């Protein structure tokens, strides 16, 4: 029997630019590439419940249970992938040395460009972007209470039902978003790749510094 690390069924996709928490955790030797490709959990976020994806996309495969608070950045995964949820203090203890999540310098309102690599490019509904609230506490794990209650941008394909448009609903290798105005200092951005033909999304997280 193969070890989980070599299980090809768990490979789907990850952001390769700019560096996400998954990429940093991989560089630190805490997870493998397949872990970074499988930060996978229910797509109805920020809802806590499974069930139909919101109108007008209710014909998509229903969502599985979305990630619990404290495990959002790993898509709810609690194995080695949990490290992407760690605070600086937790990471420092894990690595047995001082650690802070590296910050990407950004400006309010700028275009934030990402590039993905896919090992299993599912039929895609789109991408959803969340960000931490002003005054969030970086000494605590990311929870719904730490995030703005709604996504600041949704980039969804509009074709429904998905099974009639599978050739068109492609996962984007490159795309970008305009970052919110009015943010200052350290924030965490959570990006969901929302899949139409499964109950999951893939979660990626970025630590940014608004200058």
From TrEMBL:
UniProt-annotated stretches for the region Disordered: 1-20
UniProt keywords, alphabetically: Monooxygenase, Oxidoreductase, Signal
Pfam families: LPMO_10 (PF03067)
Protein name in UniProt: Lytic polysaccharide monooxygenase
Keyword Amino-acid biosynthesis: no
Molecular function GO terms recorded: monooxygenase activity
Domain Chitin-binding type-4: 12-208
